[in-house]
Design goal:
The structure holds 2 protein chains of 2 kinds. Chain A is of the alpha/beta class. Chain A has helices spanning 3-6, 12-20, 26-44, 52-67, 109-116, 159-166, 183-189, 223-233, 251-254, 268-271, 277-292, 308-323, 341-352, 355-368, 373-397, 420-425, 431-436, 465-479; strands spanning 47-50, 78-82, 120-125, 145-146, 149-153, 172-177, 192-195, 215-220, 263-267, 296-300, 400-404, 440-447, 453-459. Chain A is built from 18 helices and 13 strands. In chain A, β12 (440-447) and β13 (453-459) form a beta hairpin. The termini of chain A are close together. Chain B is mainly alpha-helical. A two-stranded antiparallel sheet of chain B has the order 1-2. Chain B is flat, with a radius of gyration of 24 Å. The interface between A and B is large, with 52 and 45 residues.
Amino acid sequence: MTVASSHPAPGVLETAEAVSSGRRTAVAAAEEALARIAEGDGRLRAFLEVTPEAALAEARAVDARVATGETLPLAGVTVAMKDNMWVEGRKTGCASRILEGFRPPGDSTVAARLRAAGAVFVGRANMDEFAMGSSTENSAYQTTRNPWDLERVAGGSSGGSAAAVAARFVPAGFGSDTGGSIRQPAACCGVVGFKPTYGRVSRYGLVAFASSLDQIGPMARSVGDAARLYRVIAGVDPRDSTSADVAVGDPEGALGRGVNGLRVGFLREAEEEGLEREVAVSLDDARRIFRDAGAQIVSVSVPRTTVSISIYYVVASAEASSNLARFDGVRYGPRKSDADVASLYVETRTAGFGPEVKRRILLGTFALASGYYEAYYGAAMRARGLLREDFDRAFREADVIVCPSIPGPAFRVGEKTDDPLTMYLSDVFTVPASLAGLPAISVPSGLTASRLPLGIQVMGPRFGEEAVFAAARAYEQGAGFPDDLPPASAG
Amino acid sequence: MPSNPSIVTPDVVRRIAELARLRLPESELPRWTEQLSRIVGHIDLLTQIPEEAFGTPPPEPPTPLRLDAPEPGHGDDALRANAPRELHGYGAVPRVVGSGG
């Protein structure tokens, strides 16, 4: 009997309650998480680095705080942090050679808030290099495997965090979502993944990829767990001028609100997409579940979702080419030449970046170059404005909008690596909410005949997180995703 | 499929690589050109949106700015932790501007 298969693996709320009430210690919770990782991560490769000593020191500090009577909403909750967020005392590498050895000067705002709430960081989760990818195959170090089938990808770019949560290594994972990088891997691995409204969560200490899109959010095994994690990290931060001073409200309270009378809009363009049969079935099931829960079902149209991938790959790549200009061997990165400053830049960047990052930088540089700027970047920005207007209109007819999270189950390792365009199209359902800055959650919708997870996505209007959580919770209760342990996570 | 496959040529790829401070070996140029051309071909879907669809875009909301006042940072030790070498209390890096060492 292995650690993973012999323990029920408590979730976020359960752990926080047990540690707060003194029934369990944070040290015991951390030791168990570390044991599960030691036992199972050789197969999954969800972590780039595990930091047992620092985790146990943090757990001891949590136990000391609990002993003094402090109330901690995440007491003893172990967390997998994507490798692009600063955590004090750990490296931050974005799964890239160019950031090898970089030690952040302190905590990101998200890490600081998690720490204050009693969370314990167990390690750096694998990701696609600089969050560019949908499979973690673009990590410079390793490919994370899907706990449901080791031959398949975990999704990306936050694939390490998603796999770690799905395999029950830890109850909580954090990722960043620029075009679907939380929701898509969450769907592939059968866990909940939530991207808050753009501006809801501070990006201070998140290594920037595309600044008009990047947003940090949680992954967990239930909607309730995700709501707790979100509540802790949400809210304005003076260190991020794009964070919005809008009341967070009560996302956990919204969970019990139900969907009676709520207008749930099904996205027409997604249904016209030519869905895989099992994805179409899961969408029909979702319609029935919402209807049975008392929601009013409507059909809504967001016409420019059909060009959202085109918009996204111009806007995100243009911003990436600008953000990644700082990685030049002077401020970051192992120097690859000292001949002169031009060759220092070129040689460091050529050796330090992997092929996908180079591809995005080239694409972004192209879209911003004189002669192409108006035809590509200008056109994409104007189309992005139209997409936002489409959503504004749709949200006059529906309180939340529903569509699949992914066009099909997790694909096989290597299946799309030679075909970047096909890889990009796997984000077709998640990119629209990113471009419009909307909150969106992926909730597991069940397993395919080959026992691979699929997900249903619920999107809300900007700062409409409460409605999203209420709908997601109602769907989760109706869908009843089995709480099976993914086969590849146990020993 | 690309509506105008000739836009992304090996010359264009060579030029943007130079702008992006990346070196692409000549032997890999056809592959980069083919991949980027396919992606740009897909992006060309944007040209199918009729011009009359675009009205006057709504103004972007203003960026909230914090008070321009000094705040404590992470401290010198945290910054020096990333310096390859320390010299007289500063991080020392190799010379990259001008000649000599």
